[in-house]
Amino acid sequence: MLILVLGFIIYSQQRRLRFLRRELDQNIRLAQTKMNPHFIGNTLNSIDALINQEEIDKASEYLISFSRLSNAVLRNSERLSIPLNEEMEMLTHYIKLEQLRLSDRFTYAITVDDSLPMHAILVPPMLLQPVVENAIWHGLQYKIRHLNEPGRVEIVIRRSELTPNLLLCEITDNGIGRAKSQELQAQSAASPPREHSTEII
Q1: Which of 184, 186, 198, 43 lies closest to 135 in space, CA to CA?
Q2: Which contiguous run of DSSP H or E holds residue 170?
Q3: How many other C-beta atoms are found inside a 10 Å radius of the C-beta of residue 200?
Q4: Which residues of the chain have pLDDT under 50?
Q5: Which residues, including other chains, have CB under 8 Å from residue 198's CB and lie 6 or more apart?
Q6: Bridge partner list, 40
Q7: What angle do CA 179, 194, 201 make, to 5 degrees?
Q8: Could you please report the per-residue DSSP string of 86-98?
Q9: Fewer C-beta neighbours within 10 Å, C or N terminus of the chain?
C-alpha cells in the first residue's frame, strides 16, 4: 500500500510538471510578439528553474502571473485605452515576475486614492510598466546584486491638489538612480552612494 501511495504521488508530480511545461511553451508563443524579449527570457528562465527544482507550487504561482500578464498585453494591444484598475492589475503581475527574477529581494507598494473611480478612468495600456521597469533595472538592480541590499518600489496614484481633474502617478525607488547605475556599470565601481529617484507622469 505504501509503495502504491508513493508511486501515485510521484506520478501526480510528474504529470503536474509536464502540464507546467506545456503552459510555459504556450505562453512563450503568446508573449513573444508583444513584450520585451529580455523580460520574457528572464521570466521564463526563472520559472523553468523552479520547475527543474520541482518547486511546483511556486512555479505554478509565477506561471499564472506570466500567463495573465501576457494574455492581458495581447488582449489590449489593439485598444487605445483601458480602465485604470486593469492597468494596475497588469502592473502588479509584472512586478511579481520581476521579484521572481531578483529572488524576492525587493518589495513594492501600490497606493491608489480611494476617491478615484478606477473602473471609469481610462489610460493607455502599459502606461506605467516602462517607468517601473526603469526603476527596477536602473534603480534597484545594482543595489540588490552588488551592494547586497534590499530594494523597494512605491507607486502612488492620486488627484492633483491644484487641478482635481489631473491624475498624478509617482513612482519612487530606493535605488541608486539611473544615471549613477549606468556610470557604475561602465566603471565597475564597488561602492556607490545611496540616493532616491522619483519619476512623475
Answers
A1: 198
A2: strand 167-173
A3: 10
A4: 1-11, 30-33, 193, 197-201
A5: 170, 171, 172
A6: none
A7: 55
A8: HHHHHHHHHHHHH
A9: N
Distance CA 145, CA 31 (A): 27
Please, are residues 161 and 144 in contact by the beta-carbon 8 Å criterion? no
Terminal-residue alpha carbon distance, the chain: 63
- Structural domain boundaries of the chain? 1-78, 105-201
**79: buried, middle or exposed (CB in 10 Å: 19+, 13-18, 0-12)?**
exposed
**C-alpha to C-alpha distance for 87 and 74, rounded to whole angstroms:** 13
* Gap between the Cα atoms of 164 and 133, Å rounded: 28
Q: How far apart are CA 157 and CA 113, in angstroms?
A: 6
Partnered with residue 165 across adjacent β-strands are none
How far apart are the C-alpha atoms of 181 and 173, rounded to whole Å? 13
- The model carries a pTM of 0.72
What confidence score (pLDDT) does residue 13 get?
55
Cβ neighbours, 10 Å, residue 175: 29
Specify whether the CB–CB gap between 150 and 144 falls below 8 A. yes
Cell matching residue 29: 508563443
Return the C-alpha cell found at 178.
Answer: 539611473
CB-side exposure of 91: number of CA atoms within 13 Å? 29
